[in-house]
Amino acid sequence: MERVKTAIVGASGYTGQELVRLLLMHPGIELVAATSRQEAGRSLGDVFPRFRGMPGSELAFIGPDPDAIAATGAKAAFLALPHGVAAEIARALLERGLKVIDLSADFRLRDPQVYAEFYGHEHPAPDLLGEAVYGLPEVRSNAIAAARLVASPGCYPTSILLPLIPLLKAGLIDPATIVANSMSGVSGAGRKADIPLLFCECNESVRAYGVPKHRHLSEIEQELSLAAGDKVTITFIPHLIPVNAGIATTTTAMLKPGVDAAAVGEALEKAYADADFVRLLGKGGCADTKHVTRTNFIDIGWEHDARTGRVLLMSAEDNLGKGAGSQALQSFNLLFGLEPMAGLQLV
Amino acid sequence: MERVKTAIVGASGYTGQELVRLLLMHPGIELVAATSRQEAGRSLGDVFPRFRGMPGSELAFIGPDPDAIAATGAKAAFLALPHGVAAEIARALLERGLKVIDLSADFRLRDPQVYAEFYGHEHPAPDLLGEAVYGLPEVRSNAIAAARLVASPGCYPTSILLPLIPLLKAGLIDPATIVANSMSGVSGAGRKADIPLLFCECNESVRAYGVPKHRHLSEIEQELSLAAGDKVTITFIPHLIPVNAGIATTTTAMLKPGVDAAAVGEALEKAYADADFVRLLGKGGCADTKHVTRTNFIDIGWEHDARTGRVLLMSAEDNLGKGAGSQALQSFNLLFGLEPMAGLQLV
Amino acid sequence: MERVKTAIVGASGYTGQELVRLLLMHPGIELVAATSRQEAGRSLGDVFPRFRGMPGSELAFIGPDPDAIAATGAKAAFLALPHGVAAEIARALLERGLKVIDLSADFRLRDPQVYAEFYGHEHPAPDLLGEAVYGLPEVRSNAIAAARLVASPGCYPTSILLPLIPLLKAGLIDPATIVANSMSGVSGAGRKADIPLLFCECNESVRAYGVPKHRHLSEIEQELSLAAGDKVTITFIPHLIPVNAGIATTTTAMLKPGVDAAAVGEALEKAYADADFVRLLGKGGCADTKHVTRTNFIDIGWEHDARTGRVLLMSAEDNLGKGAGSQALQSFNLLFGLEPMAGLQLV
Amino acid sequence: MERVKTAIVGASGYTGQELVRLLLMHPGIELVAATSRQEAGRSLGDVFPRFRGMPGSELAFIGPDPDAIAATGAKAAFLALPHGVAAEIARALLERGLKVIDLSADFRLRDPQVYAEFYGHEHPAPDLLGEAVYGLPEVRSNAIAAARLVASPGCYPTSILLPLIPLLKAGLIDPATIVANSMSGVSGAGRKADIPLLFCECNESVRAYGVPKHRHLSEIEQELSLAAGDKVTITFIPHLIPVNAGIATTTTAMLKPGVDAAAVGEALEKAYADADFVRLLGKGGCADTKHVTRTNFIDIGWEHDARTGRVLLMSAEDNLGKGAGSQALQSFNLLFGLEPMAGLQLV
């Protein structure tokens, strides 16, 4: 079978690096372009010593020029760029016939006004929002398979949405009582030369940040509202912890009056019976990030706090994996009709 | 001034070790006994190489014999023992005229039935519960100063109680909506040879545990109920993160209808205006454990989530410091009329 | 192509776990047996949550019974057992027609007296030493390919031998001046419930240990002596550092009089021109463990200290990878005529 | 007793921060000035949240103006500045009558040509080199006590010099065979916004760097040569490991022919019998950084490798403590006739 020629635009950050890793190992993909303004001319192996010696690692970075990318014969491109920047290059690549999987926030929101509210500037390409598909494969695989433009979800949203959506759809919990606390590894903050991201500043430290209105709330609430059939507003508190990778999220909500706690487990099992990458831990299962790092799995456990009537949802994923790169690849497999687990059977 | 002769019973665990550290540096204390069944006969410096060279580190461990402890002339004893074990030795030392500061859970609960419910066995000394004082110095310094038996609070409770009590007393929040998420360093689990506490099991890992009914809930709810003037039941989710020391807690609750968010800041400021060891970070302050480790400070910030009506309380302390050893020492200073910050001006 | 049925004996430690990971992803291997006395009856996925959801992870552990292992149709077995224990089961499996790749120290030494000197007891199977092949694939691939019993090298030896052997063979350095300092991740100490391996004991700590006569010196010196054509004795100092995986080794030695430093680079390049898994960093290259973890690569850089006449060799590998599991798999590929990089193209 | 008014020039880096910590707790010092170009106007507590609530933490940073510093009445100043910058301000403060303890490299070398060779530019104040005292208190306490200008040693040098100097003075080892391998925490690299110092770049990583001619070699060899009475040149390999603080150094050297290994222990014991801050671990003692962090102690153990004739010296210190801030404070106590352990009895 011929491998799908594919590009990564913005390949020098942590998410880009994870995409390079995944694509070099994917049996159905040929990585034909990796872009980086700063690293143009250097090979993947030179910039990321980890990749030296792997077939494909001799590929040289190019600048983010749409024509140059198209000239490689790429049929698809992953965008791992800052929001705002991604929209422009997405349009250019779509015009040149590529399918685009965007890992930025640019196409995740249906409503450009919500984008402006949360990101602080006008949406750069509102005309494309209509066709973009929010790429949560467990929720809308058919739409992803048919899309030209996939907006791959953020790391926090994935860890919050997958446990909650089945419960909201089944009407088991009171949406007004949802509180989500997440703990994220430092790679989630990106590969930036900032003092607060130094080893000595992060090691032996844990703290909340970005409260009360983290940008990811916009996409979280959009998708929860779709699932609930009504507008949902939640409280979300992200925390930074000293690990390289991984997000653990604990979400609590009140069960609706009369709901039997067992219904929670049933809703999750029904929703994810056929989901390759959702691993249900059952009642009492406390998801641990160490079991999911460098995979596309998300582990979900739950508990019932009978004393207060709350359900506890505990999820764990790799923020660069199921929360970014490998989830985007999962959408790619759908887009190109590849085996769902192709290139993702990694542990 | 003569230094107060003091003993540490159970000095070979992490909390005991922290007490040794603090007492060796305290200008008003002479450490005259440190007990450990396993280490009896060896000096503090031999067992804990960190202490060698410090005046006092040549003291040899003795077994936990009440008569031997009393024979050293000790006027007070810190107990850093497992629950159930502490009660017995506490009684023996009280009978021999020592004041006792117990860091176990044995005397924290007023109701022996709650103890039995949460700890799984009958209370070993119910007759002593009446005189034991729950030793949160910011809440009841006078009672501590007059006590013979202080039950020093646990690490999670301290980080949850200090932010919440002023708000409950002022009637600002709905007690039924309280959810507390804590992230604790590994030392909180003790110095035990358990596989899950190995470096390779904890490093690059984060997970919830002990849900939905952690033992510390019993003392948390007792004290919250006292503050609220009514029975309070909350949801509490502890998480284990890869740091040696430190607890960060994020607590959320709905403001009562009509309450202005500014009242939260005012209640905290009023409560802790004269508290030496509570540092208020104000609105938007995200407490970070790295600023409090090895100190007796607790940092508290808060935020208002106007979209949902919740208040967010973010606290950070050292689980072995303000959450255990140094808080017990703070009570000691009260018990013996020493300067409040004596031996605790450490950063 | 039919996959080779394979067993892992002793699959519940860190090395066993890494072998499970590698074999589940290997396209040419079918894992048919995994043994563990303690975990018998439980599935791979139950014992190691990381593996759940992977094809093959439903396999149940069995006890270490040679007949039961042979009954699975296994053609080969990896042994990840303590030294002393491995020899016995190796013999039993060889008798049942399996090829054996032993990751313990039992068959690494040619001389049973050296074994007794370093391991403190008589060799358990001296008659098998004659046919065992010390499985350093870069040094003796043909012998490995023809072997029935491969003794896969330890983690420290691999990191020391691969840089040094070409220099000794070329006669560039004075063997009497070799000093090797290694820094190893904690997983190298195994998955044992020991106080010194607790998170709080290892984190924020670095120290030497096992001096002056670490057990691995025996195999290091055996192989160096073979390369030098004369008995070689070196100084080796291992250190424990707070990382899960990875070994960095810095080895120094005096260049022989008249040797041009450039000859060092040439000798390395000549030796490893065709080596898939040795990545040469050249002069000035400081190997970093973060680029090799979870791979079978070893990175080797070198430097010349013109002021003293010493050459510095800096190598990095994953102690569970090229230093244990994946290197054993590299030998497996040779034993069964598979593609050299099969199952090892991981980054 | 009146406290000595003291300034810290360059107080916003990691070394400066450690000096602030130590001076705030020192009973004989009043911190009257802390300088930082960037933080001028902000208080110590604002810039370093750890210090809030400590007496003295309300002091505001000022710019590095010599007149302003002198105007505070400061009798002494610690300089925690980059090399090259320190010399200029040192001169200005000396002229204004202050004693100066410089923690940069500017006054450590007696020979300005060696400075130029290792630091790449002309020495900025060669006329001051004559009176500067290399401030290793265990080696020249009298000279320090009488000095006006103390050049406090670097972190690597301290960990290498203290074990070696007694052996060289006693003529026990062959200076030409000395090889020192050090492992340093990340704080040693300073508080700079550099990609290689990010958490995700340092965590789960270990590597050599700065070979073969690290700048600190210049002062190491100067002091070793003084001890040996002859020019000494050594090999030194620093490594970066993922801890915040601490340096472990393992130094090897050949015993001179006929030297009994026991003489090593005797030489160390004789040299440091009265040294408050050197803790000898004896033969077989493997110094561990976790026992010395945040103290002024250096732990030194040794071993004899009888097979090769080498002695192994294993030392551990805090790179910001005995390797920087607290060692400078140790010199301060000498300069002002304070108790040797004043302000340094910290564990």
What are the main properties of this structure?
AGPR_dimerisation_dom (chains A, B, C, D); AGPR (chains A, B, C, D); homotetramer; 347 residues; alpha/beta; 7-stranded mixed beta sheet; Rossmann fold; amino-acid biosynthesis (chains A, B, C, D); 30% helix; 6-stranded parallel beta sheet; N-acetyl-gamma-glutamyl-phosphate reductase (chains A, B, C, D); 2 domains; Dihydrodipicolinate Reductase, domain 2
What is the CATH architecture term of the largest domain in chain A? 2-Layer Sandwich
Alpha-beta classification of chain A: alpha/beta
Pattern of helices and strands of chain A: EHEHHEHEHEHEHEHEHEEHEEEH
The general outline of chain A is globular
The largest sheet of chain A has its strands arranged as: 8-9-7-10-13-12-11
**How helical, in percent, are the residues of chain A?**
25-40%
Distance between the termini of chain A: 25 Å
> How confident is the prediction overall: mean pLDDT of chain A?
97
Low-pLDDT runs of chain A: none
Assembly status: homotetramer
Pathway (chains A, B, C, D): Amino-acid biosynthesis; L-arginine biosynthesis; N(2)-acetyl-L-ornithine from L-glutamate: step 3/4
Keywords (chains A, B, C, D): Amino-acid biosynthesis, Arginine biosynthesis, Cytoplasm, NADP, Oxidoreductase
Protein name (chains A, B, C, D): N-acetyl-gamma-glutamyl-phosphate reductase
Main location (chains A, B, C, D): cytoplasm
